[in-house]
Amino acid sequence: RPDGTNVTGTCNLGSTGFNAILDQAGTYTIRVGEWYNNAIMGYALDLQCAGGQCAWIKPDIAGCINLQGSPLVDSNVILKQSLEPDQTIKTDANGCYKFDNAVSGKKFRVIIKGPAIP
């Protein structure tokens, strides 16, 4: 939440994922992490407006990646969106990335190409 507290909601991993009501005005942060901590870093994120007054703004698709406690530096990160050309950038010295040209209202996938894990 904008005030720094966590959002609560219901989770149904079999079909609908995590459902929550955003009950404060302001900017929310979505934190994505591994469930089993097994270095498999694929994920999907789908945001939907289910009622009320919905405003679609330019998405801020960004994140930082740590592998075994260290930033994943200079790794390729690919943004895939329906019917849009793929975008590729590299993580910085802190393992962070940001896509400035994501298209609003489209589903997306972020693919992280890191080193092989022994």
Share in β-strands:
25-35%
Number of distinct beta strands: 10
Low-confidence stretches: none
Shape: globular
- Report the structural category: mainly beta
Oligomer: single chain
Please provide a written account of the structure.
- With 118 residues, the chain is mainly beta.
- 0% of the residues lie in helices and 32% in strands.
- It has strands spanning 9-12, 17-20, 44-45, 61-64, 66-67, 70-71, 76-81, 87-90, 96-99, 108-113.
- A 4-stranded antiparallel β-sheet has the order 3-10-7-8, with no helix packed on it.
- The radius of gyration is 16 Å and the shape is globular.
- The mean pLDDT is 77.
Describe the SSE topology.
Blueprint (H helix, E strand, L loop, with lengths): L8 E4 L4 E4 L23 E2 L15 E4 L1 E2 L2 E2 L4 E6 L5 E4 L5 E4 L8 E6 L5
Salient structural properties:
about 120 residues; mainly beta; four-stranded antiparallel sheet; globular
Structure at a glance:
This protein has strands spanning 9-12, 17-20, 44-45, 61-64, 66-67, 70-71, 76-81, 87-90, 96-99, 108-113.
